[in-house]
């Protein structure tokens, strides 16, 4: 499964919205349920699905989906 | 293991030396009405302890002690923003995190990962304003919730 496809499945599960179509420019403003609480739950799921670990500063420094995709790639997430 | 794959528990400490120093310290309750929450604790015989404002989290903290029951930390937001306010809005008053004392924050985190637990660092290690500057870090544990690890002085 491609990275974006896997990530999109996680977003749809966490935010319980099967219509989400990820774009690199997408931010928390684009998803109603994406707040500080759901963000850490999202990152926990991403960590598990891609087999990577994140620091707290990485978790809090992401500006958009593109940043998250780049971070996963930089850690060799698969 | 119980039928259905549920672990039976038990103290298997030999496989995780980092856990041998782990001690329960307190649990925290998130509240939007500290006066009301403290009335309950006073009724149970709890006594008010130290309090502090944590500027990093923008929350107020207050410890409560009891001779026969675990310490409780009341946590309430100082403003309207932040994760604690979001949690209170979504879930209401309730247990916020469980805190454990450990000898080694990083070693304990490694031991949790070594047990194949899915753990996410939420707040990196920093001095705890309520515990004399001892290092403290927060982690989200899948299947459990938020935990706080409190390191040595």
The largest sheet of chain A is: none
Q: What's the N-to-C terminus distance of chain A?
A: 9 Å
How many strand segments of chain B?
Answer: 8
For this structure, what is the CATH homologous superfamily of chain A?
A: ACP-like
**Count of runs of 4 or more consecutive helical residues of chain A:** 4
Describe, in plain words, how this protein is organized in 3D.
The complex is a heterodimer of chains A (78) and B (153). Chain A contains four helices and no strands. Chain A is mostly helical and 78 residues long. Chain A has one domain: ACP-like (Non-ribosomal Peptide Synthetase Peptidyl Carrier Protein, Chain A, Orthogonal Bundle). Chain B is globular, with a radius of gyration of 16 Å. Helix content of chain B is 19%, strand content 39%. Chain B is α+β, with helices and mostly antiparallel strands and 153 residues long. In chain B, strand 6 and strand 7 form a beta hairpin. The model of chain B has no long low-confidence stretch (mean pLDDT 90). Chains A and B meet through helix 2 and helix 3 of A and helix 2, strand 6 and strand 7 of B. Chain A: It holds the Pfam family PP-binding.
What are the main properties of this structure?
heterodimer; A: Non-ribosomal Peptide Synthetase Peptidyl Carrier Protein, Chain A; 0% strand; B: 153 residues; alpha+beta; 2,3-Dihydroxybiphenyl 1,2-Dioxygenase, domain 1; 8-stranded mixed sheet; 39% strand
What's the helix and strand layout?
The complex is a heterodimer of chains A (78) and B (153).
Chain A: H1 3-14, H2 36-50, H3 56-61, H4 65-74
Chain B: E1 23-30, H1 34-43, E2 47-54, E3 59-65, E4 71-77, H2 83-91, E5 94-101, H3 105-114, E6 119-127, E7 135-141, E8 145-150
Parallel strand pairs in B: 1-4, 5-8
Antiparallel strand pairs in B: 1-5, 2-3, 3-4, 6-7, 7-8
Protein name (chain A): Acyl carrier protein
Domain Carrier (chain A): 1-76
């Amino acid at each position: 499964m491609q990275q974006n496809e896997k990530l999109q499945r996680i977003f749809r599960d966490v935010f319980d919205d099967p219509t989400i179509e990820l774009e690199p420019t997408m931010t928390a403003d684009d998803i109603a349920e994406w707040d500080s609480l759901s963000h850490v739950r999202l990152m926990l799921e991403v960590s598990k699905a891609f087999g990577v670990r994140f620091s707290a500063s990485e978790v809090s420094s992401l500006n958009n989906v593109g940043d998250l995709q780049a971070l996963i790639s930089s850690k060799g997430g698969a | 293991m119980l039928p259905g794959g549920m672990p039976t528990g038990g103290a298997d400490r030999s496989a995780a030396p980092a856990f041998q120093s782990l001690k329960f310290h307190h649990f925290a309750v998130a509240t939007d009405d500290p006066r009301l929450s403290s009335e309950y604790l006073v009724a149970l015989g709890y006594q008010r302890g130290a309090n502090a404002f944590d500027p990093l989290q923008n929350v107020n903290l207050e410890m409560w002690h009891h001779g026969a029951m675990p310490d409780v930390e009341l946590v309430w937001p100082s403003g309207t923003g932040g994760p604690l306010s979001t949690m209170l809005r979504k879930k209401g008053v309730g247990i916020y995190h469980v805190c454990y004392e450990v000898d080694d924050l990083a070693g304990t985190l490694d031991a949790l990962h070594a047990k194949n637990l899915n753990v996410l660092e939420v707040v990196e290690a920093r001095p705890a304003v309520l515990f004399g500057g001892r290092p403290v870090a927060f982690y989200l544990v899948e299947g459990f919730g938020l935990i706080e690890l409190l390191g040595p002085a």
